Each structure stands twice: as C-alpha cells, then as structure tokens.
Amino acid sequence: MADIFKLVVQKGPAVGQAFELVDGQITMGRESSNSITIDDRALSRSHAKLIKTASGYTIQDLGSTNGTYINGEAINSPHDLKNGDKIFIGETVVIEFQVIPGKNDPNATFVMPAPNKRANATEVLPSRADVEAALHKGSLSHADEHRLLFSRWFEELWNKKNYSITRELVAPEFTAHGAGGQDIKQGPDGVAGMVKVWHEAFPDGHMTMDDIVTEGEMSAIRMTFRGTHTGEFYGIPASNKPVEVTSIGIDRVVGGKICEGWGELNMLGMMQQIGAIPTPEQPPQQFDIETSITPEHVGEAYSALSSGDMARINQYWAEDMVWQVPGHNELSGWYYSRDEFLAFMGKVGEMSDHSFRMDPVAGKVLVTGDYSVDLTRNRGYRKDASEKTMDIEVAHVLRWKDGKVIAGKGAIFGDGATEYDQFWSRSPFVTPPSH
C-alpha cells in the first residue's frame, strides 16, 4: 500500500496534533487561509509550502520574516523531506515530518513512533492519531495513556471550552493541593469553575502542553498559557494586555481519571504583566496608610459580626469588602461584597447547626499600618453529623480603610488545613482530634 505522510506538532501551539498530507500543495502560516494554520506571532502570514513529489514531499520557505529551518539548518531553496526531519518555524514551533509505510495494510504491524529528542529538549508527545491507533490495537503503553488523556484535557477543556470533559476525565473525589494561590473546589465542577475564571478573563486564551514525564500513577507536566486580559481576573479589572505564563502540574491518574493534583504557576509574573503588581523597574503605587486601627478596634469588629446587629456590622465592615476563604472545599474562594461575606457566614452557621465559633486568642492581635493580623480558635460540629468536628487555629489578615475592613483572608497552619477541608467538604471522612 502507499506510504502515509504526516506532520506532527511536537512543540508550540497545538502540540500533539497530527496533519495527514494528501494534497499536492500544503501551505503553513499564521493566516486562516493556509492549509495548516499555527497561531504563533513569529510565523509569517504565509510562511512555508510543501509540494508533493514522486518520492514524498519537498518544503520551501515563502520569504518568511524569520525563516524556515530543517534540523536546525536554514533552507533557501526547496528541500526534500525525510522521515524524522524536524521543521523549525516561528518562536517555539517544531514539527516532525513522518513517513509511515504501508499503514493502510490491515496485516501490517503498527509500531508506535519512539519519542524524539534533541539537545536540551525533553520527551516529545506522539501524535494523537498515532496514539489512538495504538490504543485500538492494544499496544498503547501506560505512559502513552497518560499522554493521550492530558492531550485531550488541554485541547478540549482549555482550548475548546468543553467543560463537560471534566466529568469524563476527573474523579468525583478530585482534590487540588495548590494552584498558585487559587482555591479550587472539589470534584469535576470545581476544576471546570477554575478554568471558566481564566476563560472569562482571557477569552482568546490558549494552553499548550510543553513537556510531560510519567511514572506510575503520577504525571508531571510543564504547560504555557497565552492570552489577552480583556475581562476581570480575581477582582483585577481588564488591562487589555497580553500574558504568557508557565506552570507546572503534578497529577495522579487512577482508572483513567485525574483524582489528585498539585500545581504551581508564575502568578507573580502574570500579575506584573497585567499591571496589577509593579515590576522591579516600576515604583510602587502610593496609598494613604490607615493609622487609627488598634487591637481593640479589631476585637470590636469581630464582636459586631457575631452580634448580628447590622448597624454595628456596617460600622466596621465595608460594603464593597472582599474576603478569601482558604482551602479546597465547597466554601473556599472569593466573596466580593459584604452581602456575599455575610451570606457565607450564614451558610457556615447552617452547615454547623450554628455550633461554629470563632474565638479570638487573647493577646494575639498585631496591627501595623492599614493591616491587622489576629489568631482565632475555630470550633464546631457538622449538622446531622455531630461526630464530625473541628478545633483548629486560624490566622486572619485584615486590611482597613477609614476604620472599616475592606479585605480579609484566612490562613491555616499545618494539618489544620486538612481538618478544615474535611470538615466543610461533603466527604464522609471524620476529622482527627485537634492538634
């Protein structure tokens, strides 16, 4: 049977995507009118062209600004492509030319292409088409199963905004242990909700999987997100600035579903890119510093909150305040007004059968400028499950303006974080004794 020719994106946008070559001429470039469109700023609108020959394909540069390279060498005239040739175009794009002999022969043995390496590069993904073919023949390795799963994860969820894919690929008990400061609620819906926040802030965003290393149940992935900040992002208004942020994720996969994840991303760098945080070259913005707050003032604010007296609450808590609840449970996240914060406190009371108490630890209040830090002892039991208890210490950081709290955030120490998450989650786990 005739050979099959294809291009497989190994690095850059659409990593892992395969293009089977059938036409006599195939153009590549940034414009959508090309046979193969690749969204990379360093590609020319019409960058390069492949031409079918009797033995395969040749490639020629179309006068692009940044040139076309084969295995690291620039080409100035038509170049015959050989199996395994690497085509370098743009800033980050690497495409492999593959020749698969007799692939249409039903009696032929399918061989998975070996991962390709080059100097200073990590393992490269096989194409999705090849992986799916190997899966059909039962020859897919455990590591390649993970590669296929995460290729679908990034393409379907992050790039195509198919939020329902989380119910297929994420376990109901999924737990996130960190995501660059983001609070992700449990389960598939929690993951989808976090991704929606990014899509609302960066509607044109695109995620690429740069590298993946798999061992046993665990996969470590390096990924890059690119987009334009045209919507609110965690309370930060649109800046209309482009961002590029790299992150590292470690995920545990059991039974074909992601059940646990750890993540770190360059949130500081992204905040600097959208102007929310000054860079080292920029002077910090100056604010009027609150100087009238005392430890007694902090105590009065908490007392007003526990009293339920709206007149007293209005005296100490600003109408447009924001509050962040720590952890990874159904209550975690940001609350963007006093009304939302009070509704959160109401839900806390309802879920704990109004047993929840937040008692200040005597002598543990620090005030400096317009910030205060206090330590409270949080105790209670769950409604309809009195054996599920919590007794931990929580630190609160409050920011004040004109004598009112305008922002606040909780922080939990050590194993108390697990106890806090288990207490507020819907899981049947009973928390351990207090530490």
Largest sheet: 6 strands, antiparallel
Low-confidence stretches: 103-128, 430-435
Using only C-alpha atoms, the radius of gyration works out to 27 Å
How many strand elements? Answer: 22
Strand content: 35-45%
Distance separating the two termini = 70 Å
User: Given the C-alpha coordinates, what overall shape results?
Assistant: elongated
Question: How are the strands of the biggest sheet laid out side by side?
Answer: 2-1-11-10-7-8
Oligomer: single chain
- Secondary structure class reads alpha+beta
Average pLDDT level: 81
Counted by DSSP, the helix tally is: 9
Give helix % range.
10-25%
Description:
The chain is α+β, with helices and mostly antiparallel strands and 435 residues long. It contains 9 helices and 22 strands. The chain has helices spanning 128-136, 142-159, 165-169, 187-201, 267-273, 295-307, 310-316, 338-351, 416-424; strands at 4-11, 18-21, 25-29, 36-37, 48-52, 57-61, 68-70, 73-74, 79-80, 86-89, 93-100, 170-179, 206-215, 218-228, 242-254, 257-265, 317-325, 333-335, 357-368, 371-382, 385-401, 404-412. It has a 6-stranded antiparallel β-sheet, covered by helices on one side. Helix 1 crosses helix 2 and helix 6 runs antiparallel to helix 7 (310-316). The radius of gyration is 27 Å and the shape is elongated. The protein starts with a strand and ends in an 11-residue tail after the last helix. The model is unreliable at 103-128 and 430-435 (pLDDT under 50).
Which secondary structure elements does this structure contain, and how are they paired or packed?
Layout: E1 4-11, E2 18-21, E3 25-29, E4 36-37, E5 48-52, E6 57-61, E7 68-70, E8 73-74, E9 79-80, E10 86-89, E11 93-100, H1 128-136, H2 142-159, H3 165-169, E12 170-179, H4 187-201, E13 206-215, E14 218-228, E15 242-254, E16 257-265, H5 267-273, H6 295-307, H7 310-316, E17 317-325, E18 333-335, H8 338-351, E19 357-368, E20 371-382, E21 385-401, E22 404-412, H9 416-424
Parallel strand pairs: 3-4, 12-16, 17-22
Antiparallel strand pairs: 1-2, 1-11, 3-5, 5-6, 6-9, 7-8, 7-10, 10-11, 13-14, 14-15, 15-16, 17-18, 19-20, 20-21, 21-22
Helix pairs in contact: 1-2, 6-7
